[in-house]
Amino acid sequence: MSIPEELWRRFQEGDPRALARALTLVESGHPAGRELLKRVRGKGRAKVVGVTGSPGAGKSTLTDRLILEARKRGERVAVLAVDPSSPFSGGAILGDRIRMMRHHQDPGVYIRSMASRGALGGLAGATVAALSLLEAFGFDRIFVETVGVGQSEVDIARVADTTLLVLTPAAGDAVQAFKAGVMEIADVFAVNKFDLPGGERIVQELKSALELSPPRPGGWRPPIHPTVAASGEGVEALFESLEAHHRHLVEHGLLEGHRLERARFEVESVIQEWGRQRTQGAGALVARVARGELTPEEAALALLGPGPEAEEGAL
């Protein structure tokens, strides 16, 4: 299906309502949305910052403050807030948009909540596709805030240029992050709500853990920033570290690798969604697996066609 020319014209002219319509087409998987993506891919180069961390860490409030810092520097900013989807209704909890309402009259800020759609990692492929639309629309910086559950931290590192992990002095928060392996993928750390007891202890634990973590590409050393998002304390220094990491990526020729990994993640997400849809309509096949008549691999082969093993055998 071709893109409505009126929509395409308005999108190119910078009409935010056309952007909203385009994002809806992409998120719903509409053929016109897919055609639109083909036109816009590679037409923008925004700085993409992933913001992740456990629920209650203050990610939305901190992102709100980072938006202010970006606007002080004249940047046009977009935010994709990935909200958890209900597994029953498919609806999302759009709380992040509420917490950033101060920017709703600023034409230089665009905030969009997107449902995770039950994606295993907390990020849907549509979220990644939306980045292409926002870049083509001309935004200078895009914040992607994740649900902070499951493997969303690992997923956001594959999508963003810079990954910001937000921790708090809350009991067990940092230890849980270490277990999840997030230490290896975060580029910048923020210990938010640093005015609460235990903030300095978290900073010391992070420093100790970073000494044991593998070296980062180009020799980058992740900085740790104490912040109090509610008052803005420490946010300017945090923003400067986000800028420093982007300069590091440019200087060491690492940005292109990030973009390729983002495309790989998007393709994998489409495959995962196709598999989920086909499995839902294959009750008889799934029942045969449950009875031991088929292996899961045989069932998957019947649903999706030859897999990697078949391709290797053909070489």
Automatic annotation (TrEMBL):
Question: Which class of enzymes does this protein belong to?
Answer: transferase
Q: Does the keyword Nucleotide-binding apply?
A: yes
The record's keywords, sorted A to Z, are:
Chaperone, GTP-binding, Hydrolase, Kinase, Nucleotide-binding, Transferase
One example of the protein's molecular function in GO is: kinase activity
Instruction: Cite the InterPro entries for this sequence.
Output: GTPase/Isobutyryl-CoA_mutase, GTPase_ArgK, P-loop_NTPase
Q: Which domain of life is it from?
A: Bacteria
User: Pfam families, per this entry?
Assistant: MeaB (PF03308)
Look up keyword GTP-binding and say if it applies. yes
| EC number(s) from the headed UniProt entry | 2.7.-.-
Q: Which family does it belong to?
A: Belongs to the SIMIBI class G3E GTPase family. ArgK/MeaB subfamily.
Q: Which PANTHER family does the annotation name?
A: LAO_AO TRANSPORT SYSTEM ATPASE, LYSINE/ARGININE/ORNITHINE TRANSPORT SYSTEM KINASE
Q: What is this protein called?
A: LAO/AO transport system kinase
